[in-house]
Amino acid sequence: TAERPGKGDGNDLTPNPRKLNNIGKELDKLGRIINDMTPVSELPFNVRPKTRKEKNKLASRACRLKKKAQHEANKIKLFGLEHEHKRLINGLQQLKQVLIVKCSKPVSDNTEESSQQIDKIVKSATKVKIAGSSTEFVNKILDRVKAGDPNGGLDEL
Questions:
Q1: Do 123 and 87 meet the contact criterion of CB atoms below 8 Å apart?
Q2: For the segment 98-111, what is each residue's pLDDT rounded down to a tens digit?
Q3: Which structural domain range is residue 129 located in?
Q4: Is residue 26 situated within a structural domain?
């Protein structure tokens, strides 16, 4: 997509699981660096300010990365929820058509057939369940990225 000048990728709502995975790796690395640093209280007085400043710089970077990661995770959630919503709306429209046909026929006609049709529509419409478990959804997508799927299976929804 061609971007306007001055438009950061913060306005881009395209989900990018690979980017989220990379941010996670970077956060892990930063966390290890921060945790491996000698506590300021155990250092000589003359180097404490410099070490504290360095540690704060790393912590600030980690904070910014966490914010970016949350934004990326939210984009994945939004994508999944929109997809789930479309499936449900489509399923409701299909069910409406089946019910219109069923109600316009005599009671004994095709009851079994329309029940099977309804079951099939409901199964298809509720195949993707993200609302209420969006965090698990994002984690599943991330696991797929780690397993080698660059898009985390989002294109299969």
A1: no
A2: 988 888 877 666 67
A3: 17-147
A4: yes
